[in-house]
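Revision sheet: structure tokens.
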Amino acid sequence: MIEIPALDIFSDDPANLTSTIQLLLLLTVLALAPSILILMTCFTRIVIVLSFVRTGLATQQMPPNQVLVGIALFITFFIMTPVFSQVNEEALQPLFAGELTQEEAFDAAALPLKEFMAKHTREKDLALFMGYAGLERPESLDDIPLTSLVPAFAISELKTAFQIGFMIFVPFLVIDMVVASILMSMGMMMLPPVMIALPFKILLFVMVDGWHLVIRSLLLSF
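Predicted:
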């Protein structure tokens, strides 16, 4: 029989208390993982840009949502690996070793994420939430609360993603306009231009190695 360790929050045994803390932290992280992934990492920008690519190609559900989300997840883990490693080395491992309290570990874990988000947050967006909360201009990164930095980072990422999406849409829009003009000049107004433009857009995207260019641009943007 496999014995399941008892969950005793009020235990005086350091080993039992450490196991309890680890379990509680694990459950908390798992519960908040979707929100942390979406709002505190580069996942939002990547998945929106990939969605813009699919919409610009007008390929309906190709690639499927599962493929786009999977690619976005792995690229996110690739970009965020240095940040996650720093969180593990400076917060989680010292906490499990009993060198830090939970409050100190939380502050240590928040600092690398703050540095990443602050680097990609527009000052205007941060000032919006700081001003609404009645906070003064921060002197350092420690003075910026996560309650203001996270939403500011989120809307900054949305703006950046839409700017990249606009640049992706332009060549596809040109192809649509050219095909529509040719069909109208030939009197084929009943033939959907999207149907004729689709193979040309796919051909152009493949010839310029579009996926490589998009992913390379996303990596360089961080």
